[in-house]
Design goal:
The complex is a heterodimer of chains A (about 300) and B (about 1100). Chain A is of the alpha/beta class. Chain A has helices spanning about 1-10, 35-45, 60-70, 75, 105-110, 125-135, 150-155, 195-200, 215-225, 230-240, 255-265, 270-285, 285-300; strands spanning about 50-55, 95-100, 110-115, 120-125, 135-140, 160-165, 170-175, 180-185, 205. In chain A, β3 and β4 (about 120-125) form a beta hairpin. In chain A, α10 runs antiparallel to α11 (about 255-265) and α12 (about 270-285) runs antiparallel to α13.
Chain lengths: ~300, ~1100
């Protein structure tokens, strides 16, 4: 028993901890460009134009931002020794990602006073940190956030590029490298959660959709490691299932789910079963719909 | 005692045993009180009369005196004496009887009307046959009488007594036992007693022992039978008994047992079936009922009809085998059950198949039964083969090819996949000018050659007739030869018309295309490869033998075999080995993912060129040698040309030498591949497109269409059915209808010319009356508003019956509960601060101070020092607009078949099913119209909205013409919900047209005045907007759609969220235009409306 315990201790957990504004995408994430989105984003970055990413869930928006953060900050990743100070002429572009939810308030983003032994202490929120550190701030599913967050977004996204911190009475001018990027899924049918035009019109919009079959097959193959035929079959499955959007399915099968299925297959799970757990059951709870998707799966996979 | 009469009486009493006098003395005083002296005397004397009838009748007299006071209390003297005399007569026959009679009397007279007393006594008397046993029985009858009379109508008592009498002839013991059983059982039987009694009566003749068994069985058995059906059931038993059925009790038991396994409401149907059997072969009824239980465990009630019908047919041929069938003691019966229980109704898997085909094709495909396609009469005739017309996939209604449900389903899937593959892999996309992928394009040369030939003929003719003006050359001749330009309305038609034998080339085209598709399916959908191979194998087994066909057909059959994945050991005529190999090469070339529909065309062209050059003659069977054609080698254009030249040379040689050979006949169809009609599909699509485009081209006339159909190889008309021309005209009309072409106008002057905007004349309108409003309308052609163009008249809807509202809530009780729960989840919470949170808007001073103090004390402080306000307050105003146009009167889809008695099916079995449904009230529900569902949804919605307290208004709209847009208030937005509103909902009825734009504008005005954070306008319609001068079905739809779009945009601009929900399945096409990027939804299943509407609203405001 004791020995076992010692062994376990030796096997140290390997995780890395970063301050939120110091998180850098260090190795190149896989991203397969479908159109000219790379050029567009780079241009917007250079010109300090905030970017709105539109598209259904799991089509690669987050991956795209990650990839751009890596690409724009590329010089630093070539430095082997990560702990070292910055070399001259290098650009760091940290990535601060915030998943928005309905309880996300402005103070969650900007920061707040906390009590400590000597009184109160101000803690910067992730947005403030990103602004200061010159990061790409990525607000995922921004419509989910509470309305008061838009108050913060507006001054940051026009020519001023400032973040007023109401509670401390400060105004922070954003670092030159700072860029705000938000994502938005237009498939939601909620009148209360639509993005206001005054907000929308501060961004350029890049539309994402699921990639065409061949490209998607390539992505699935690359990401899941399954063979080309399987990847192609999965991509075709994705295409077929997406045909059912508006026929009962709220969202089509995302590339992410296809990749999951591919990974399970890679682990030796039979194809039909892998698709069932990764795709069919995830997409719908409705028996008939499940059965219909299953039939498509059974047709494509043996 | 001074009365001499009395003294006299006492003397006479003294002659009798002393007990009599004692009895008299005991009651004499009491009697004197009830009757006068004279009457009392008569009473007393009657006693003596009784006592003196026979030796032992003094006992009766004692009893007579004893009960007299009690009886006298209920009867007047006259009736009393009548009663007493009945006793006298009885004692004459048997004192025992009389004693029993008197004993029972006190409790009888209180329940029985006096005039029935003699009849009652008579009943007892009738049982007495002078024997000891009979007197016991009769006495027993009197004994049980009080209970019988108390619980049964006297009429039933009489019938029962006669039943007992009938039984008594057989056995007194049984009769006596039944008498007692009857007393216990009959009262509980209620209304069915009569039927039961007459059944028992019938039994006494044939098998009297059964009566007792039935009586014993009845209470237990009948409780399984539905109340309304018990009578019929028993009458059935009666008839059977009359016909000599022995063990009726068994029947009762089995029957009741069987019925108890049938769902309530269907028992009547079972009895229908029994009665049907009874009429022909009563002997079959008991086995049928006995088998019912196991049978119904295996098949459904609907399928039972089929099984039954088959049994009836057998009965008619041979009663013995029929009965064996119903006993499930015959193979036929067993295998039929097997088949039925494994057969698959399309109806049950339709939903799955629909989604499946939609997923595969990416088109909005409808799955329908083939019966529907045949009904439309647009060229498809076979009910058992699948088909597609480009937007719908038709599948046979029932599949019973295999004895296994899973296999039958797999068959469905293979068939559906094959049909969808026509769409997915572009069978209908044939484009004459698009180059093929794997073949060289020969069709262009061919067309040129033909045209040159025609030109030559034309010039020759022109010269012949010495016509100077070549334009005037009769163009009719163009239609004579192949390749006439008049016929090439569709691309596929253009291609097919290149060939002399259109049928043959079409057959080749179909086989090759099916081969291409089956190959594609197998590569793209490996999952159904096995099932597809099975189906192909089965299809192969049914193919004719190649050796028995004349040459041309044999070669085509060879292709069919190969298309079904059979390449080994195919019989090939040795003289035509080269041709067969060439055909195989052509086919193999299509077996690649690169092959397109144009390649199929090119392949068909080549195959045709070869086969058409051969004589269609029967080759001797020994000419055929088996060959493997799985690898015939690569196809090469040069070799093909060489073969062609050789054949051509042979043909020229043989010219005039031999006869024509057999006329060519098409190969047998391959069942699972269904009806492939690319030309018809292209035609329909094109007609529809021309229609919606209002294209530059002249729309096709019916005559042209008829001509086209006549040429088509796809249409097989049965000439015997009637005048070909006439049916052609009918086809043409049906097809036009299908494509949405308006029928030709009767007014010859106008023709098709649309009469648009006939109220264009006249200008702006004034709203003069109160409650009328005037609105602009958008003219998309002018790209501007027509000012003050429409008048909206606001009216409050009449009030009707509030029960509609209440009934709707009741009918949807479970849904209602569900909706309510969902809505309660979004119940608004007030602005309430929640304290002691780890996170919040600001620091809560109290907890902060506490924490501060804790810190000072070096105690870990509580982290929960924040407060936060709860959620945003819900502040929603919504207006619902209900379409009240005439089209909402349309009965909903499923009701189309059985609406009223005229639709009653002819087939007896179907008729019974229909009748049963009707009885269950299903037919009535099928009557439901779109508007009914709108109303019901409305009721549910109101209920839900009331629970969350949103501000809402509900309005209906309709109207006629621009001066008369009716806007009905069901619930005004300012109005509180009350009974009046419930009543108004009842009055929501289909009215006139739909001028949506103005109605929307008025609704927007209503909302604009509301002070709410979120404003929503919810439009519920059943189709595109239309009105006089607004749009006309099939003529001009854009104007209305654009105006509506504009109105919705106006709403959006005023910060109102518009949402369109339509139940029109064809909604996708115009809603895209009408709503743009605004939200809309097309509800595929109208029945889902009551559920979907509140849910949609909920998700819209969450």
């Amino acid at each position: 028993m004791v020995e076992a315990n010692i062994e376990m201790l030796e096997d140290e957990p390997s995780f890395k901890e970063f301050a939120i504004e110091e998180f850098l995408v260090r190795s190149e994430p896989y991203y397969r460009a479908v159109g000219d989105e790379l050029e567009l984003f780079e241009a917007a970055y250079e010109q300090h134009i905030p970017v709105l990413l539109k598209g259904p869930t799991g089509c690669g928006k987050t991956r795209f931002v990650e990839y751009m953060a890596w690409k724009l900050g590329r010089p630093i990743t070539s430095v082997r020794n990560e702990g070292q100070d910055m070399r001259e002429g290098e650009v760091r572009v940290p990535l601060v990602t915030i998943a928005c939810h309905e309880d996300l308030t402005a103070s969650d983003l900007v920061g707040r006073y906390l009590l400590d032994a000597n009184g109160t202490r101000w803690i910067d929120g992730p947005m403030t940190r990103a602004v200061k550190a010159g990061a790409i701030l990525y607000l995922d599913e921004v419509v989910e956030a509470r309305k008061d967050t838009t108050v913060l977004i507006h001054p940051l996204t026009d020519h001023r590029r400032i973040l007023p911190v109401e509670k401390t009475g400060n105004i922070i001018e954003a670092d030159d490298r700072f860029l705000l990027c938000i994502s938005y899924n237009p498939h939601y049918q909620s009148a209360l959660k639509d993005l206001k035009h005054s907000t929308r019109q501060r961004f350029i919009s890049i539309e994402f959709d699921y990639p065409p079959v061949d490209v998607e097959a390539e992505i699935v193959a690359k990401e899941s490691g399954c063979d080309e035929d399987q990847a192609h079959a999965l991509a075709r499955l994705g295409e077929k299932i997406r045909n059912l959007r508006e026929h009962g399915l709220a969202e089509g099968a995302s590339t992410r789910l296809l990749i999951y299925a591919g990974r399970l297959m890679q682990q030796g799970i039979p194809a039909r079963r892998a698709c069932q757990v990764a795709i069919v059951w995830t997409l719908s709870d409705e028996a008939e719909l499940q059965r219909s998707i299953e039939e498509v799966v059974y047709s494509i996979f043996e | 005692m001074t009365n001499p009469a009395t003294g006299n009486l006492l003397d006479e009493l003294a002659k009798l045993p002393p007990a009599v006098a004692e009895a008299y003395q005991a009651v004499a005083d009491a009697m004197a009180e009830s009757f006068s002296d004279e009457e009392t005397a008569l009473w007393a004397r009657e006693g003596v009369a009784i006592g003196t009838q026979t030796v032992r009748s003094w006992e009766s007299a004692v009893e007579y005196y004893r009960v007299s006071p009690e009886v006298a209390r209920s009867l007047a003297f006259a009736s009393f004496m009548q009663w007493a005399r009945c006793g006298t007569y009885l004692s004459q026959d048997s004192p025992t009887l009389a004693v029993a009679f008197f004993k029972a009397s006190p409790s009888i007279v209180t329940n029985l009307r006096p005039q029935y007393i003699p009849r009652w006594a008579g009943l007892g008397r009738s049982l007495y046959k002078g024997t000891w046993k009979s007197s016991t029985l009769a006495a027993r009858f009197f004994e049980v009488s009080p209970d019988l009379v108390r619980n049964l109508p006297f009429w039933d008592v009489e019938v029962f007594a006669s039943l007992i009498e009938a039984l008594s002839y057989k056995s007194y013991d049984v009769a006596a036992e039944c008498l007692v059983l009857g007393r216990d059982v009959l009262p509980a039987m209620g209304r069915e007693r009569e039927a039961f009694l007459s059944m028992s009566r019938a039994l006494t003749d044939s098998s009297w022992r059964e009566v007792k068994a039935c009586l014993e069985m009845a209470p237990r058995a009948l409780q399984h039978v539905e109340e309304g059906q018990t009578g019929r059931f028993l009458r059935l038993g009666e008839k059977l008994a009359k016909m000599g059925l022995r063990d009726t009790s068994r029947f009762l038991y089995d029957g009741a047992q069987a019925l108890s396994h049938v769902s309530a409401g269907s028992q009547g149907h079972i009895l229908d079936l029994c009665e049907g059997l009874l009429a022909s072969t009563p002997d079959a009824v008991p086995p049928f009922l006995k088998s019912l239980d196991p049978v119904l465990n295996r098949i459904t009630l609907q399928q039972l009809d089929q099984w039954y019908q088959h049994g009836v047919e057998l009965l008619n041929e041979n009663p013995e085998s029929g009965i064996a069938f119903f006993k499930i003691e015959s193979n036929t019966s067993e295998s039929m059950l097997e088949t039925l229980s494994s057969s698959l109704d399309l109806e049950r898997v339709k939903g799955i198949m629909r989604l499946y085909t939609r997923a595969l094709s990416g088109e909005n495909i409808e799955v329908l039964s083939t019966a529907e396609l045949v009904r439309r009469q647009i060229g498809w005739v076979d009910q058992d083969t699948a088909a597609t017309d480009g937007t719908k996939v038709y599948l046979p209604p029932v599949i019973d090819n295999y004895n296994d449900k899973a296999q039958n389903f797999a068959w469905f899937k293979v068939v559906a996949t094959h049909q969808v593959s026509h769409l997915e892999f572009g069978s209908f996309q044939f484009d004459f000018v698009r180059p093929a992928n794997v073949f060289d394009d020969r069709r262009f040369q061919m067309e040129e050659a033909i045209q040159a030939r025609i030109e030559a003929i034309r010039t020759a003719t022109a010269e012949h007739f010495q016509l100077l003006d070549s334009d005037a050359a009769p163009s009719i001749e163009v239609g004579e030869g192949p390749g006439g330009t008049m016929r090439v309305y569709t691309d596929i038609g253009r291609f097919l018309s290149l060939f002399e034998d259109r049928r043959m080339v079409f057959d080749l085209f179909s086989v090759l295309e099916d081969c291409r598709l089956d190959y594609r399916i197998k590569t793209e959908y490996p999952g159904i490869r096995r099932a597809a191979l099975d189906v192909q194998g089965d299809a192969l087994a049914q193919r004719p033998r190649i050796e028995e066909l004349p040459l041309q057909e044999a070669l085509i059959e060879l292709l069919v075999h190969m298309s079904l994945d059979r390449f080994e050991g195919l019989p090939v005529p040795q003289d035509y080995r080269e041709e067969a190999y060439m055909l195989a090469r052509i086919m193999h070339r299509l077996r690649t993912v690169r092959a397109s529909i144009e390649d199929t065309g090119e392949a068909a062209l080549r195959a045709y060129e070869i086969i058409s050059r051969l004589q269609n003659e029967q080759e001797p069977e020994d000419e055929f040698q088996p060959e493997d054609l799985d690898d015939p080698g690569e196809f090469s254009e040069e070799e093909y040309q060489a073969l062609l030249d050789k054949l051509q040379a042979q043909m020229s040689e043989q010219e005039g030498e031999q006869g024509e050979g057999d006329p060519y006949e098409s190969p047998e169809p391959v069942e699972y591949r269904g009806d492939f009609k690319p030309e018809m599909v292209q035609l329909l699509t094109k007609l529809q497109m021309d229609q919606s485009e209002m294209g530059d081209a002249e729309p096709m006339t019916q005559e042209e269409l008829e001509q086209l159909l006549q040429d088509s190889a796809e249409l097989e008309l049965d000439a015997q059915e009637g005048d070909v021309d006439q049916s052609m005209a009918m086809f043409a009309q049906n097809i036009m209808k299908e494509a949405g072409v308006p029928p030709p106008s009767n007014d010859p002057g106008r023709g098709y010319g649309p009469i648009l905007h006939d109220d264009d004349a006249g200008g702006e309108l004034e709203a003069l009356e109160p409650k009328t409003f005037v609105y602009d309308e958008w003219d998309f052609r002018a790209n501007d508003y027509k000012p003050r163009w429409c008048i909206v008249k606001e009216k409050i809807l009449d009030e009707g019956d509030p029960n509609f509202y209440n009934d709707s809530l009741r009918n949807y009780a479970s849904l209602l509960a569900h909706i309510k729960r969902q809505f309660e989840l979004i119940m608004p919470e007030t602005w309430r601060k929640t304290y002691r949170l780890i996170d919040g808007e600001d620091i809560d001073l109290n907890s902060a101070l506490e924490a501060w103090a804790d810190l000072r004390m070096n105690v870990p402080p509580d982290e929960k020092i924040y407060w936060r306000r709860n959620r945003v307050e819900r502040d929603v105003a919504v207006v619902f607009l209900l379409d009240m146009s005439a089209s909402t009167a349309e009965a909903i889809d499923e009701g189309r078949h059985s609406v009223d008695d005229r639709d009653a099916p002819d087939d007896p079995v179907e008729y019974m099913v229909w009748l049963r449904r009707r009885r269950e009230g299903l037919v009535r529900r099928h009557y439901k119209r779109i508007i009914d569902l709108e109303r019901e949804s409305c009721a549910l919605l109101i209920n839900a909205l009331e629970s969350i307290g949103d501000t809402y208004g509900i309005y209906g709209f309709s109207g006629y013409g621009r001066e008369n847009v009716e806007f009905y208030v069901i619930k005004d937005i300012e109005e509180q919900f009350n009974d009046k509103i419930k009543r108004r909902i009842d009055k929501v009825t289909p009215l006139h047209a739909t001028r949506m734009g103005s109605a929307i504008r008025h609704a927007v005005t209503k909302l604009e005045n509301q002070d709410a954070a979120t404003k929503i306008m919810f439009l519920i319609s059943d189709g595109r907007p239309q009105d006089r001068g607004y749009s006309r079905e099939g003529v001009e739809k854009e104007y209305a759609v654009h105006d509506t779009h504009q109105a919705l945009l106006e709403a959006k601009r005023k910060e109102i969220v518009p949402f369109c929900l339509t139940v029109d399945k064809a909604g996708h096409d115009y809603l895209k235009t009408m709503c743009g990027d605004l939200n809309y939804e097309v509800l595929d299943d109208i029945w889902a409306l009551p559920e979907r509407l509140p849910m949609l609203y909920r998700s819209l405001t969450m």
